[in-house]
Amino acid sequence: MQKEDIRFLKQKARIIRCNILETLGIGKKGHLGGSMSSADLVTALYFYKMKHNSKNPDDPDRDRFIFSKGHSVLAQYAALAECGYFPKSILKTTKTLGSILQGHPETRTPGIEANTGSLGQGLSIGLGMAIGAKLDHKNYKVYVILGDGELAEGQIWEAASTASFYKLDNLIAIVDYNKLLQAVGFLKKRYDMGDIRGKFAIFGWKTFEINGHDMEEILQALNSVDEIKGAPSVIIAHTIKGKGVSFAENNPAFHNAPLTKEQIEKAKADICNS
Amino acid sequence: MRQKENLREAYGKELLKCAKENNKIIALDADLCGSTKSIYIEKEIPARFFEMGIAEQNMTSTAAGLALVGKIPFVHSFAVFAVGQAYNQIRQGIALPKLNVKIIGSSCGLSDFGDGATHQSVEDISIMRAIPNMVVIVPVDAIETRKVVRAVIKYNGPVYIRINRNDLTNVTKEEDSFEIGKISKVAEGNDITVFACGIMVSQALEARKTLLRMGISARVVNVSTIKPLDIENVKKFAKDVKGVITAEENTIIGGLGGAISEALSEELIKIKKVGINDEFGQSANCYDDLINYYGLTPKNIINAARELVS
User: Fold this and answer.
1) Number of domains chain B is built from
2) Which of A60, A128, A162 sits opposite B64 (nearest CB)?
3) Are residues B165 and B16 in the same domain?
4) Residue A203 belongs to what domain range?
5) B154 and B209 in one domain?
C-alpha cells in the first residue's frame, strides 16, 4: 500500500459520492445515508482490493462482491459505472421503468453478482460462492457488505455458523456499522445489537475493527484478512450514515429521502471540500 | 396388480447416478438426508454433499450462491420446510434471477402421516406455482421420478419437485417419455376427464374401473408438471367430455385444481375439485387413514363423475 494509493482512493471515493448524488438527482427518493456510509468501503474493494475486469465481467476467477444491504446499491452503481461496467450516463435512469439499474441489486445489471435487498440473505449467497470456489480449487474471494441493522436477521447467524464450520477463509464480511436503524433512529436505542464483534468471534470468525472512513485502515484490514487461514473473517467498519454530506450525517431523515437542488449543490460542495 | 415402489428411494438413487455423471451437481440438506435420500450422495460423493444444519433459509440462499458460480445445487428438506421456511429466499434469491437451483420438497402432502400437520404440506403446490419463473413438478411414481431428476438437470432454471414419502403404485412405464411442461394421458375415456397428480393418479385409475361398470367412461390424465401448465393439451382433453375433475393431494385452493380451472376459465365446462378442502393435516397411524379421512379417494372421484354426467 503506497501513499499514492491512498490519495488516489480518496479521490475515487469523492467521485463515487458525487456519482451517488448524480444517480439520486433532484427530488428522487433514494437511500442516501447507507450509500454514503459504505462509499469508502466500496471504493476500496473496487479500486484497490478486488480482482475484476469490466471488460470480462464473467471471468470465473474474479473476486465477488455482494451488497447484502441492497438498499445502498447506489454506491455500487456509482462504482460500477466508474469502472466501466455501464456508461455513467445511465446512472440517472436508476429506479425508472425498464432501467437495468433497479432500486435494489439484481443480476440483470452488469457487475452485480446476486439479487439482494431482502435483508439477511447476502451472506448465505456469498457462502455458496465461497463453497463453490473451494470445490473448484479457485482462489477468488467473496466480499459481503452487511448492514448493522441487518444483523438482526437470524439467517445472518445461520450463515455465520456454517461459514465457520466449513472453514471458509475465502469469505469476508464487512459490517457497515453506521449505527442508525432505517429512517427511525439510532440502533442502540431502538434495537441494540450488542457486541457485534464478540458475536462474530464466538461464531468462530476472525474479527477486525476499523474506522470505515479511514482509507488506510480499510486497506490494512482488507490485506490482513488475506493472511487468515481456516476461518472466515469479518471487518467491523465504524461508519457515519450520510458520510460526506454535512446535513445528512448521522441524520435518520436521510435514510431514504429526496434532495432539493440546493441540497445537492451543498452536498457536492461538502464532498469536494472533504 | 402393478408394482409399488418408493419415490424418495428412486429419487435419491437417480440423483446419485446423475451426480456421478455430472460434477456440477451438489446436494444440500438440512438434517434430513436420511429421509430425503440425499444421503446416497453423502455416502458416495461426500465432497459434493453439504450438511447445512437445521437452517433452511441459509441452505436455500447458499444454493443460490452455488448456482451463481455454475453449480447445480439440489436443496433438500421436507416440503413444508423447503417451501415454508425459506419462501422469501426462494422468491428473492432464486426465482427472481432465475437461478439453476432445484428445490426438493420431500415427504410432501400428507405422506409423513405420523408427524401431523406441522410436517405435512397441504399448500406447497399453490405457493410455488404462484412464484414467477418457478417450474413445479409432482412425479406420479418412482419410474417418472427418475426421469424427472434427469429432466430438471438438463433444464437451466429453478424447479420445485414434490416427492412423496411412501411407496406408490407405478402407473407409468419405463418406455413412457417425460418432458417438463407436458401432460400425459394414462387412460382413455370420453365422458369425463380426470386431471390428477401424484398419488391421485392411481386413485383416479381405481375410480375409472368402477365408473366403467356404471357405464361412465373416464379419461385419466397425469399432470406431473403443474407449472408451466400444458394448457393446449388441457383444453384438448377437456373439449370432448361432459365435465372435468381435478384430483390432488394439496389444498383445492390454488393448486392443480386452481391451475386447471384457470386454464379452462373461458370454456363452458363444469369442473369439480377433489383435494384437501382448505384445512390442515393431522397425525394418523398410516397414510391410508389420512387419504381416506381427507377424501382423497376413488369414491370421491366417482361421486364427482356421477354428478358431472347426470
Assistant:
1) 2
2) A128
3) yes
4) 3-272
5) no
Interchain CB contact of B41 with A (< 8 Å): no
Whether B123 sits among the annotated catalytic residues: the reply is no
d(CA B13, CA B9): 6
The model's pTM: 0.96
Do B16 and B164 share a structural domain?
yes
Residues B134 and B205 placed together within one structural domain of the fold: no
User: In CATH, what number is assigned to the domain containing residue A208?
Assistant: 3.40.50.970
Mutation to test the A interface, candidates B24, B68, B85, B90, most A Cβ within 10 Å: B68
Q: Are residue B83 and residue B195 in the same domain, yes or no?
A: no
| Same structural domain, B16 and B120 | yes
Map grid coordinates 476500496 to a residue.
A44
DSSP bridge pairs for B246: B195, B273
Residue B176 lies in a domain: no
Q: Which domain holds residue B268?
A: 184-309
Distance CA B293, CA A153 (A): 40
**Does the predicted interface ipTM exceed a cut of 0.90?**
yes
Angle subtended at Cα B221 by Cα B216 and Cα B223, rounded to the nearest 5 degrees: 150
Question: Distance (Å, rounded) from C-alpha A110 to C-alpha A104?
Answer: 14
**pLDDT tens digits, one per residue of A82-137:** 999 999 999 999 999 999 999 999 999 999 999 999 999 999 999 999 999 999 99
Name residues whose C-beta falls within 8 Å of residue A27's C-beta, 6 or more positions apart in sequence. A258, A259, A260
**A107 with B97: Cβ contact below 8 A:** yes
Among residues B9, B14, B42, B56, which one is catalytic?
A: B56
Bridge partners, A207 (sequence order):
A234
The chain B residue lying nearest A65, using CA atoms, is B65
Q: Is B102 on the interface with A (CB under 8 A)?
A: no
